[in-house]
Amino acid sequence: MSEKNFDIFLEINYFKLNLAAFSKLNGQLEYYKEKSYIDYFEKNNQLNFDKLQKFAEESIIELEKSINFFVKDIYLIIETPDSTSIKLSISKNNEGKNLVKKDVMYLIQDAKQHFLKSNNELNIIHIIVENYVLDNLSYNFLPLEKNCKKLSIDIQFICFPKHLVKKFEKLFSNQQIYINQFICLNYVRKFDLKTNNKNICERGKSIVEGANKQEVVFIPKLVAKTGFFEKLFHFFR
Fold first, then answer.
1. Are 20 and 31 in contact (CB under 8 A)?
2. How far lies 165's CA from each of 161, 183, 201, 223, in Å?
3. H-helix or E-strand containing 158?
4. Of 47, 69, 102, 182, which sits most exposed with the smallest number of CB within 10 A?
5. CA distance 201 to 30
6. pLDDT in tens, 39-49
């Protein structure tokens, strides 16, 4: 197989499975194919994983032959009725000091930990910071170096059930493929990109690369270990 390297995005929605390969060298789309389902979703819009298994295997083998590349990991874009969006606010006394990045990072991490304790049946797929509130003044961007007595952050967590995540991980582990990142299809559709004329895999790639500056972006686990803050806060770059 080729020494060329690709980022592979796979979209599974209610009607079809879409596969895309992007060159890691220049980011260009080098393969894209849509494949329609026959009956892989049940009447309640739940996936039939037994039927999907063979279909996914065949689709990935076809991709590998086309681009001459073994697929080892993918970004998985999922449409599911089981996705959940939960919002919460968290605040701290900032004692009139200037707002610095480190304080915001710790506050979001604290919100994440509180969320997981109360929702241990869910996996967080996306974290979006909707507002920063400094002394009752709201900002949709991070107003660094402004002083305030009270800091509050409004956060949205988009989640999948853990049991669904495990089913997909098992499905692809059977093919020795690691899932770099889960992506919620409804979130990709709703985010107002100037790329709405592009396919969902292209738009999903933009999301992963930090197109929404309010999203806390997770670096894939396969990447060499770095400190917590380098891994989570892409939108501060």
1. yes
2. 7, 11, 19, 20
3. strand 150-161
4. 102
5. 12
6. 555 556 667 78
Q: Are 52 and 70 in contact (CB under 8 A)?
A: no
Q: 189 in helix, strand or coil?
A: helix
pLDDT, tens only, 178-196: 999 999 999 999 876 665 5
Residues in the chain: 237
Q: 84-158 belongs to which CATH class?
A: alpha beta
Distance CA 182, CA 126 (A): 9
Residue type, 133: V
14-23 contact pairs (CB < 8 A, 24+): 14/41, 14/45, 14/79, 17/55, 17/56, 17/59, 18/199, 18/200, 18/201, 19/59, 19/60, 19/63, 19/201, 20/199, 20/201, 20/202, 20/205, 21/63, 21/67, 21/69, 22/205
CATH number assigned to the domain covering 6-81+161-217: 3.30.420.40
